Amino acid sequence: EVESMVHPFTLEYANTNGKRPRELLTKNHKELVKEGEKWMKGTASSCTVVAALIVTIMFAAAITVPGGNKQDSGLPTFLNEKVFMVFIISDALSLLSASTSLLMFLGILTSRYAEEDFLKSLPKKMIVGPSTLILSIATMMITFCASLFIILPGKSRVVIPIICLAIVPVTLFASMQFHLLYDMVISTYASRILDKKAKYGS
Q1: Alpha carbon of residue 152 to chain centroid
Q2: CB of 109 closer than 8 Å to CB of 41
Q3: 132, 120, 129, 136: which is closest to 169 by C-alpha?
Q4: 37 and which of 77, 88, 113, 142 could share a cystine (Cβ 3.0–4.6 Å)?
Q5: What angle do CA 26, 29, 35 make, to 5 degrees?
Q6: pLDDT of residue 201
Q7: SS3 sequence of the chain
Q8: Distance (Å, whole) CA 160 – CA 148
C-alpha cells in the first residue's frame, strides 16, 4: 500500500546500511509474521474441527430423514410436507456452507505464510471461513427445528420454546465472530492508508 503511494524510483533507494525498503520491511516485521502465522493456524485448527463435525452431522441427517422411508418406494415418508422441504434445503445449505468453511480453513493451514499472503489471500480466506461457518450453524439449527415440527406435529407448546432456545447459540457465535470479521474486512478492503491517500491527494 505504501508502494502505491510513493514514486517508483524511491523503491530502489537504499539506506546507509545498503538496505532497500522491502528488505527493511521484511526484517522489521519478521516476528509479526510469525505471530500472525501462529494465530491464524490456531484459529483455523479450532474452526476446522467444528466445520468437520457439522459436515458429518448434516450428511447423516440427509440420509436418515425424520419419519424414515416408505417400504415400497424408498421415498421419504413426509416427502410432500412443506416442512420436510425446509428440512432438506436447510440441511443441504448447512452441508455446503460447512464444506466451504472447511476448505477455507484448510487453505489457511496449508498456506506458505509469505508476506504477500497476509495482504489479500489469508484475510480473504479468514473472512469467507467464519462467514460460511456462521451460515452453516444457522441452517443447522433450522434443520433441527424443521425436524422437530415433523416428528412432533401439533406440539407447538414444546417446539416453539425449543426454537427460541436454538437461536441463542447462533447469536452468541455470530456476535463473537463479528468483530473479527469486521476488522478483517476493514483492514483488507478499506485501508486507512488508502483513505488518507484519497483525502490528501498524495
Answers
A1: 33
A2: yes
A3: 136
A4: 113
A5: 130
A6: 44
A7: CCCCCCCHHHHHCCCCCCCCHHHHHHHHCHHHHHHHHHHHHHHHHHHHHHHHHHHHHHHHHHHCCCCCECCCCCCECCCCCHHHHHHHHHHHHHHHHHHHHHHHHHHHHCCCCCHHHHCCHHHHHHHHHHHHHHHHHHHHHHHHHHHHHHHCCCCHHHHHHHHHHHHHHHHHHHHHHHHHHHHHHHHHHCCHHHHHHHHHCC
A8: 10
Q: Which amino acid is at 134?
A: I
Rounded to an integer, what is the distance from CA 128 to the centroid of its chain? 4
User: Which amino acid does the sequence have at 48?
Assistant: T
* Cell, residue 89: 434445503
Give me the pLDDT at residue 83, please. 86
| C-alpha cell read off for 27 | 526484517
pLDDT tens per residue across span 107-147:
999 988 887 888 788 889 999 999 999 999 999 999 998 88
Q: How confident is the model over 174-200, as pLDDT tens digits?
A: 998 888 888 888 887 775 545 554 444
Cell numbers given for 189: 478492503
What would you measure as the largest C-alpha separation in the chain, in angstroms?
85
